[in-house]
Amino acid sequence: MSTKKVLVIIATGSETVEIVAPADILRGCGVEVTIASIHGNEPVKACDGISIVPDIALKSVNKDAYDAIILPGGLTGSPNMSQCELVGDILKHHHDKGKLIAAICLGPTVLHANGIGFGRKITSYPLGKESLSEKYDYVEEPIVQDGNIITSRGPGTVWNFALKIAENLVGIEETKRVAERNLLLEFLDKKTFVNS
Questions:
Q1: How far is CA 95 from CA 53, 68, 91, 111, 159, in A?
Q2: Which listed residue (29, 47, 84, 105) is catalytic?
Q3: What is this structure's pTM?
Q4: Tens of pLDDT along 36-45?
Q5: Is residue 105 flagged as an active site residue?
Q6: Strand 56-57 and strand 100-104: pairing?
Q7: For residue 183, what pLDDT is reported?
Q8: Which keywords annotate this record (predicted)?
């Protein structure tokens, strides 16, 4: 089996834990994680002022190389990504191929801005509910999966989110192994709404 590859897209103001926690869990599962910035190769100031050094500039990404895309949230990070045309192009390409897209916190607003998955069941940080409810079937659950789209509420649900992505990419057994090693078994598939 070939190594799965995940692209985490970040921008100034992205939520730190929503970048780092999924990357940590997925790398623990043997997934190759690439963090790409919409701003280039320079360090990005996350929402709390912590600097995140991207692996690559988003403009240098091969959009066919990844099995999944992760969109962290953030009150300014998500709007910054929503306004980036390249993010939209990559998301549409990825969605058209039926590949996994995972968005947390206000990350689902980036899907909305780019017309991705309208009519699907999703969740988000509570501030996104009103605008997202216009085009999606909004569900107030910690994590929601509808087909190839996984969404989650925010920093408090980041472990559920990371483990659900891992389960989709490497299967439940490897995900359980990593969850147990990280003392996260209680977060595995806890209150997950799945619409198949």
A1: 27, 10, 6, 10, 24
A2: 105
A3: 0.94
A4: 999 999 999 9
A5: yes
A6: unpaired
A7: 78
A8: Cytoplasm, Oxidation
Cβ neighbours of 26 (radius 10 Å) = 26
- Cα 148 to Cα 145: distance, rounded to the nearest angstrom: 7
Distance CA 195, CA 180 (A): 26
Q: What is the CA radius of gyration of the chain?
A: 15
pLDDT given at position 179: 85
- Residues 6+ away with beta carbon under 8 Å from 177: none
132 pLDDT above the threshold of 80: yes
- For the ranges 21-30, 65-74, 181-190, the lowest mean pLDDT is seen at 181-190
Please provide the DSSP assignment of the chain as one string: -PPPEEEEEE-TT--HHHHHHHHHHHHHTT-EEEEEETT-SS-EE-TTS-EE--SEEGGG--TTS-SEEEE---TTHHHHHHT-HHHHHHHHHHHHTT-EEEEETTTHHHHHHTT-STTSEE---GGGHHHHTTTSEE--SSEEEETTEEEE-SGGGHHHHHHHHHHHHH-HHHHHHHHHHTT-GGGTTTTEEEE-
All structural domains of the chain? 5-195 (3.40.50.880)
Residue reference for tokens 């002022």: 49
Using DSSP bridges, classify how beta strands 121-122 and 192-195 pair: parallel, antiparallel or unpaired: unpaired
